[in-house]
Amino acid sequence: MLPQQLRVVGLTLGDAEDPSSRSGVNHNVFSRMSSRCDLIDVIDLDVRGFPKLLLAAMSFSFDRRRWGNKLHQNPQAFKIRTGIAEKALAEIRNKYDVVFQDGAMFLPSNGDLPTPFVSYHDSNIILATQGGPLAHGAHCGGERLRKTIQQEAEVYRRAALIFVMSDWLKRSLIQDFKISESKIKTVYAGINLDSGIDHKPKLYDGRTILFVGKNFDRKGGQVVLKAFRKVRSTIRDARLVIIGPQLQIDEEGVEVRGFVRDRDLLTRSYQEASVFVLPSNFEPFGIAFCEAFAHRVPCIGTNICAMPEIIEHGRGGFLVEPNDHETLADWICEILRDGHLARQMGAYGYTKVKTTFNWDVVVDKMVQHCVSLV
């Protein structure tokens, strides 16, 4: 079978037409899949109406972020989504060859499917609960955690193939869920900027440090501020631009741009940057690093999760221990002072985005693997 003859139905949470849904993964995966195979439909399994209100009441927390995570990972929500998927797929039975599922928050059916299904993931519940108090699974424990692990394990067991964004996740699926390595395929992820890969020549003389991330604390924002103060003590014209959180910071050299809806402004921010820093305490993948690489910006992250696979210490940038602002400051200074080093690292990252971390390459791999199942 040729890829264009493959009939696929997608299952996801959120509107696949919305570029902001699921951090852009939905839109980028399914828009490219539609040009490579016969994408029959993409079904949004978000729970709405009274069932959602009931689930929200069951998951209530005074901490809004914690409340949202508990609602999203509620085992009862998993059952409801699975029921919605089963009914929707029954209505188009015999019209598809493969079911493509984004995430592990549901199953396509309570019973056996007449066709294989595959799934795509950036993390899992066990990794999320090990990522510290700010990780996505920090709220989950006891019976809720046991049930969630059981439900996720069933997704992995029943899937014909599991696509993952990193070898970090692949290792966890093998070790923590006892999944056969043969059915796990590391395909990575791509960038979500409308501008795509920047082909313009890059300058590194601006002394601008860029941070992009809504969850300021989880992504190491306070560590960046501490590091920046040390950097400014030796590089007086250094600047720090913060994008994502709405913060009130009155500090010389720091510019907070908040949540940027203007994609052109975000692109210009990457173009202006000499180094990108995101010393996260937990980062399932790290698409922002790839977006920095798309603009030839060297990156500094932490030596955990999938970040070492993206940055590669000494090649696309540097890695530090979580919460180590001293070493972070040292590596920032190293890049700001050495334009040749910055150019080398930026070029390395740029090549990785062209060859590995882009949605065209990622989706091509997944479609080819799906063809092999039919």
List the helices and strands and how they pair.
Blueprint: E1 7-12, H1 25-33, E2 38-44, H2 49-58, H3 64-72, H4 75-91, E3 98-102, E4 117-121, H5 125-129, H6 142-158, E5 161-164, H7 167-176, E6 184-186, E7 208-212, H8 221-234, E8 239-243, E9 254-258, H9 263-272, E10 275-278, H10 287-293, E11 299-302, H11 307-311, E12 317-320, H12 325-337, H13 339-355, H14 359-371
Parallel strand pairs: 1-2, 1-3, 3-4, 4-5, 5-6, 7-8, 7-10, 8-9, 10-11, 11-12
Description:
There is one protein chain. By secondary structure, the chain is an alpha/beta fold. The chain has two domains: 3-190 and 358-371, Rossmann fold (3-Layer(aba) Sandwich); 208-355, 3-Layer(aba) Sandwich (Rossmann fold), CATH 3.40.50.2000. It is 42% helix and 15% strand. It contains 14 helices and twelve strands. It has helices at 25-33, 49-58, 64-72, 75-91, 125-129, 142-158, 167-176, 221-234, 263-272, 287-293, 307-311, 325-337, 339-355, 359-371; strands at residues 7-12, 38-44, 98-102, 117-121, 161-164, 184-186, 208-212, 239-243, 254-258, 275-278, 299-302, 317-320. It has a six-stranded parallel β-sheet, sandwiched between helices. Helix 8 links the parallel strand 7 and strand 8 (239-243). Helix 8 (221-234) packs across helix 12 (325-337). The termini are close together. The model has no long low-confidence stretch (mean pLDDT 91).
